[in-house]
């Protein structure tokens, strides 16, 4: 049926992998596929108390400012300003409906159809979706143990490619788990200044470090960086509080579009989030708990995977966040096919091909350790090892 939907919808369809993952919702399957925080680590009691307190204020149930509750933007400006080493004010921060909305609004603000966007390979699938919907010409640069290979980006630029936007997940990458090296952050910022593209530094995982914090954000080194972060992984996804900060003109353009998108965010969850983020003593304890618990889980998973696959796979060196990336040394392994066998063995993951077009992604997979306790992760790893053997013999 021609002309039923806009041209924008042509390139967007539910992927085969998404359909396959629908099979993994069976109760007997341990899913390491989703990227969900553990609900037991979400501070529901504190959220309940803050919600009760907020509800005594009529403003909490009223429309609010499009850019977000002023008190929340003040807290965020102080926190983000400390990270980039510069005084930020509330006018440089926009609160969005999760950082996913920030990505989506930025794509509309910055991109015309056909504009080049450079993503990492592998890339965050939610970013790929947004850039495809914006009808951008998506190109990729490889990612390695030090994050985005900025030398490869420089080569691309020197070959004449002129991106409008470069997207990077700088800390504890989704799906690769890695951290962008300090020198590459400066290099990326310098390239943005020299070639005049925008960097979207997408950082929902930076607070979830296990031993040491990640290096200073890319945004510390150039005004052409728009930084995104979120309350989803540290407080609760259901608050739907994300934010962006950066160039004031970009913030104003995002505000204009957001008026048309949703008028404003939820005054109630903005109040709750502001209260929790400004209670520094509580937040420090809460973040310590998350770092310790997720750190223990990451170690349980990497130990289990090492013993399940031995030398046949290489694992990312996980130092924070929620994900571990596994690459099989035998690059003829097709992890999308392996997923079918794995589900029969009661375990699920996301095949690498979900995260980009590169052929080498087909022999890789992403595991999320955040949602399962250590003993369940150990069982999941055994099942993965059995599935791998069964798949190799079939
Ligand atoms: N960016 C990255 C890299 C993510 O992994 C996610 C969530 N999976 C998001 C953005 C969006 O998260 P939210 O909208 O909940 O803030």
UniProtKB/TrEMBL annotation:
It comes from Rhodococcus tibetensis. The keyword RNA-binding does not apply. Keywords: Aminotransferase, Pyridoxal phosphate, Transferase. GO terms for molecular function: transaminase activity. Its cofactor is pyridoxal 5'-phosphate. Residues 28-384 form the Aminotransferase class I/classII large domain. This is PLP-dependent aminotransferase family protein. Pfam families: Aminotran_1_2 (PF00155).
